[in-house]
Amino acid sequence: MAIEDVTITSRDERTAGCGCGCGHDDSVPALDVRAVPHAIRHATVFGALGAIAPGLALDLVAPHDPKPLLAQIEQREPGAFDVRYLQSGPEAWTLRLTRR
What we know:
single chain; 100 residues; alpha+beta; 2 helices; disordered N terminus
């Protein structure tokens, strides 16, 4: 897989800024894992979630309802994320994971 096969985009909906005053874009990033090989898909998501600061969010785009992944996230970091479904299939599921 070439790195350009992984799509990380920015969404228009805003979330809490970091407050650092650096002027960067505070929109919610989206991680589309449909192009990520299944063998490393969950690890990719865990890595991305590790970069999300409290109060900020990540939109996850998956090829199916990621209930097993959500269970793993909860097991690894109990109570760390609020999850909201933005789209439920049939082509893609989009969830917003907001770090508490």
